[in-house]
Amino acid sequence: MFTASENRERWITIAAIFLGLVVVLGATRFQLYFRTPMLEQGDIAVNALQVHQAKHLGEIYGNYSRFEFNHPGPAFFYVYAGSEWLLYDWLHLVPSPTNAHLVGSMALQSLFFALAIGVLCSHLPWRGLAPFALLAAAIHFGALREPWVSIWPPHVLLMPFLCLLIACVSVASGRLTDWPLAVLAGGFLFHGHVAQPLFVGLLGGLALLLSLWSLRSQIGRWTDGVRVHRRHLLLCAVLLFVFLLPLAVDVFTRGARSNLSTILGRFAGNSEEHISLLRSLLYFLSFGTETREQNELFAVIGPETRAFLADHAWRIAAWIVVLVTPPIIAWRGRSFLAPAERRFLLTAGAFLATSLVGCLLWGKAQAGGMHHFNGYFYYAIYYFGLLSALALAARGLARFPRLPWILLAIPAAVVGLRAFASGPINETESGLGVQRAVAAALAADPDPRPKLLVFEHRHWHNVATVALELQRRGVGFYVAPWWSFMFQPRHDMTRLGPAPEDNASIWWIAPPRTEGVPLTNEVSIHHQPGVIRPGDEISLKADANGFRYIISGVTPGNIDHAATNLPRVVVRFAPERTDQDVNVVFDVSSDLAPAPHAAEIYCNGVRIGEAVAAARAKVTVRIPQEIWNRQRVATLELKFPHAHPHRNKFRPDYEWWTAWNLWSIRFEAVDPAAGGSAGRTN
To answer: Does 443 lie in the same domain as 489?
Structure first.
């Protein structure tokens, strides 16, 4: 029976570990957390856009996936939003919202770790266990460096997963008062990644079955059990309501276009990978080594895989021994283990085996490569198994209760300080250069309208930082519909109306030329269209100049051409004056070739002809001299009256329009003696 004094001692242990971690980690990374202002970049910047929405209680989605959906929920974002409000807005303890998010994540991870170790030590009250656990954590997680101090979504699953495992073992061992803790950790995991419902279901389902069996043996009638544990059950119900609310809002407001529908469609249609059970097992075992090259090693089973296994056989074998020995010893340890201790360790072995089953299933279900980050939470499973072995070691030292603290507490602190200490942050890492560039671009472009951000696929990480800085400055921004899975539908440019370019200031974020505000070594912010002279060409090949002129209507360019994805394509440029008509030559094919597809061509609002594409060819339309020279900034528009929308079963929220595949647009001065007509194929 778990007494009040034992419960109080458990919470003292939890508080001590939590406060100790926060102080140690805060001290080792003091400069990063409390002195160096930062601006998020890449994935973290995209997530910060959602944190901003969570700060206004308006976020219902988790972080984006590269498979073009959002993970189930925003629990982590609300923690970061609360940290920003408390530490940055109210107390002014940190120099930027980013720093607040880092501190909030560190505190959350420390809390889950402290809860896990506190629960473990309450079941196995051997004084040596806590220092053993702390030293092992400093070595095991310190070698990774990311736990506790990273806010990248794959990393933040680690400590909640550890907490879920230990809380479920506790519940299954008969301590039903820990159900709220299991639900709390499971809720964060459920929100954090689409793989986690599998693990939460397996571990939570096993804990439920074993706890119900325990409840029946303890009390006899279910009604008596509900009465005894009504407060804990009520707390579980409240937590479940809170964690499921965003999902319910999404389903009831968007129906077939909901994020949940997108997730289910993506998993149902996953035919990209056929991962064998062996590959999945090897993927799991590789996390017991130092490698991070899982995708290269296990894409196929071949010579590289065998060489890797030969090089790391001793390490993998050692981990196997560590994971399987404690349940065996617990099974045969009736003489030196109390019944409750033995039951806990055997139950831990059952949950370790269940976790392994989940890992094998998840390994087989992965799509797009067996990357290291897909299984980052596996490190928690290894540490969980290690804790059982350390518990038995602590039991052996029970007659020397102070020795582990003397021998291990100080080394744990030293290892932790060295592992998690951070060096100085340079300007590129801090993102402050981008912050200044956005300020300079806004000064150069006083247009009060929102910014329409135009960019090629490979520059999205730079654009995310720009978008975040605009949002924090209160400046609206929009992107092409294709990017709504990353930047969220509220920033879809089609919300600006049928001609978005007329209701926004255009910012082309493209490789630098002579003009523009330098953003990074790769790109500049251009708010004026590029110059076009007769003889120039706009290429839609990847890494070319297309997205210095394109505004909307084509894919973001990562192959040798672009495909239309809206019923109109808009190009804007600064035309150099000419005394001749100009031919616009489209290197193009119909998306349904050889079936033809027609486009109406407009320049500066005037219809100049029609171009018909079939098999790939060059199609020419003439722009009269007076129309070419009419405006300082010219707009070339292609309308596809026969384009039809399509939906992908992987993204029911996104609609694209197929018409043309476009390689380039070339501008050629017309010889006055030459003829030419709209829509003529050369």
So the answer is: yes
